[in-house]
Amino acid sequence: MADLPTIAEVEAGDAATLDRLLREATAPFVVRGLVTDWPLVEAARQSSQAARDYLVQHHRDIPFTVSIGRPGGGDRLFYDDAMAMNFATVRAKLPDILGQIAREEDAVDGRPIYLASIDLRGFFDGLAEANRVDLGTREPLASIWIGTRTRIAAHNDLPANLACVAAGRRRFTLFPPDQFVNLHLGPLDNTPAGRAVSMVDFTAPDPQRHPRFAQALRHAQVAELEPGDAIQIPSLWWHHVEGLAPFNILVNYWWRDQPRWFGQPQDALHHAILAIRDLPDDQKAHWRAVFDHYVFANDDAVTAHLPPGGRGVLDPLTAESAERLRNFLLRQLAK
Question: Residues 183-204, buried b or exposed e (16+ Cβ, 10 A)?
């Protein structure tokens, strides 16, 4: 790919400044050295083995889920030619997984080995507390990602994301949310990790198969992060992530500004495909207008003729009304 603009870098010397930057952000940014004082980063600077030893000291003796690629299959965890995954997902104890990584990380044809989105508090004791970012009143999900050289296809996430490199080196290539059409997405239901991904091989784009990718690149930004650096990825921004070193560790924090009881828009998309997409055109036009009225416009005209207390879910949702709506949907789907 051609040289891309670099993601903006900002200073965040204290928690209050970081909080303000996160609240005001409308685009991604990089904070160099945000977590250089982490013990995990200090261990990684000694050696990859020191970082692995540090993780083992804190791990719980329970199985971890790990993705393992095929020998000689390259570093891209993706689909094979039959649209099945080109990696196996197994469960094993962390010392065994890290031992296998140690044996394969420098091999020319070593298999990619990747622990993805491991809950810090569920699988480790004290690791989250010893290596943390002060995010104020946010209640994020903290996860750790551990692996050899890997390439993870461009995808997006609903939560906002602060990703901190603890070991190795990572390259992030980001695209605004509206570039989903130009990224040539794969299936919605058969996905490597629950989200649709770009089918474009970023190391060898095929303009015949993916002609709109050139348009996406006009909006792309890139950053390479070293241990201690962090990147803020706004909600719904597409990100292609490469672990460039033989051994890499990332810790990230996900959060939503909406309450936890909000539904998942992706679920609504799947339900709309089930219920609306294959209807005749005139019926689809009707439901488009209904969605515009109740969901996207959602102005005062929707409820002005209804008495207060009699508007049901047309009133702003609360935890209680959201739970009633969720239970109603479950009953309908179960029929």
Answer: bbbbeeeebbeebbbbbbbbee
**Of 89, 212, 229, the residue nearest 163 (C-alpha):** 229
Order of all β-strands in the sheet with 141-147:
29-31, 230-233, 160-167, 248-255, 141-147, 113-119, 63-69, 87-93
* Domain range summary for the chain, segments of one domain joined by +: 15-255, 265-333
61 within 8 A of 97, measured Cβ to Cβ: no
**DSSP H helices in the chain:** 15-24, 39-46, 48-58, 94-104, 120-123, 127-130, 213-217, 265-275, 281-291, 319-333
Q: What is the DSSP letter of 294?
A: I
- Residue 109's pLDDT is 80
Q: How far apart are the first and last CA of the chain?
A: 50
Q: What residues does 309 pair with on adjacent strands?
A: none
Residue 136 burial (CB count, 10 A): 12
Fold classified for 15-255: Jelly Rolls (2.60.120)
pLDDT at 106: 78
Q: What is the pTM of this model?
A: 0.96
DSSP states along 85-111 = BSEEEEEEEHHHHHHHHHHHTT-TTPP
pLDDT along the chain (335 residues), means of 10: 90 96 96 98 98 98 97 92 97 98 85 97 98 96 97 97 98 98 98 96 97 98 98 98 97 95 95 97 98 95 92 94 95 92
Amino acid at 313: V
In which residue are the tokens 């005062």 written?
Answer: 300
Task: Please name every residue paired with 240 in a beta bridge, in sequence order, or none if there are none.
Answer: 173
With a CB cutoff of 8 Å and minimum separation 6, the contacts of 321 are 312, 313, 315
Please give the Cα distance from 183 to 212 (Å, whole number).
7
Q: Which of 206, 205, 184, 188 is nearest to 196 (CA)?
A: 188
What integer pLDDT is reported at residue 1 of this predicted model?
63
